[in-house]
Amino acid sequence: MAIPGQKELTALENFMEGVWKQNPIFVMVLGMCPTLAVTVSAVNALAMGVATTFVLVCSALLVSLMRRIVPKEVRIATYIVIIATFVTIVDYLIAAISLALYEALGAFIQLIVVNCIILGRAEAHASKHPPAWAASNALGMGIGFAVALFALGAVREILGAGKLFGIALFGPDFQPWVVMVLPPGGFFVLGMWLLLFNWLRTRSPAAGAMKPVEGHGHG
């Protein structure tokens, strides 16, 4: 299936765009603040990934539904209000489910409002496409973000604490790499994943059609 303006992009390609071709972290290098701050454990990483995905999909769907009635002059302000509404819902849900997790994620839940991944999807994609197409693309982007966060969080927790999801993986003689739960460890693991991801992309049969997307490491 393809729609006008998508250059014969299929539904699967639309969904997979954010998972692989334009992965928010490993390709566009966006959302670096939560990426480095909350990935000290796999649980924190997954929670942030799921929360961001929820906000991303819901806001993209609503922006798409309202795309014909929102004046161009106030579209950005409207998008921010929509995003902030869903972030508030997520904020209360996490606090109700687990106070410990809520405290671990800290202010980064509220900062989803200014995450350029979400606002960028709303402006560049959801505002120009039908609801189903916008939601599918947003879901792929959210899954790509969550997978990348989990990849960092799992490595940092395993090496920094000898655990995964709080379950000990090694014997009592294991010496944790304390640096992995500190900021330098986050940068190191991110660099290693970026190296691996880009190596895999260059070896992909479709590498020629998957040129890197320029991005900046904003929150």
Structure summarized in a few sentences:
This protein has 219 residues and is mostly helical.
Helix content class: 55-70%
Query: How far apart are the first and last residues' alpha carbons, in Å?
Result: 34 Å
Order of helical and strand elements: HHHHHHHEEH
Side by side, the strands of the main sheet go: 1-2
Oligomer class? single chain
Please indicate the percent range of residues in DSSP E strands (runs of 2 or more): under 5%
Nearest-integer average pLDDT = 86
In total, how many beta strands?
Answer: 2
- Gyration radius from CA atoms, angstroms: 18 Å
Number of domains: 1
The total count of helices amounts to 8
Main sheet characteristics: 2 strands, antiparallel
Structural class: mainly alpha
Shape: globular
Stretches where pLDDT is under 50 for at least 5 consecutive residues are 1-6, 207-217
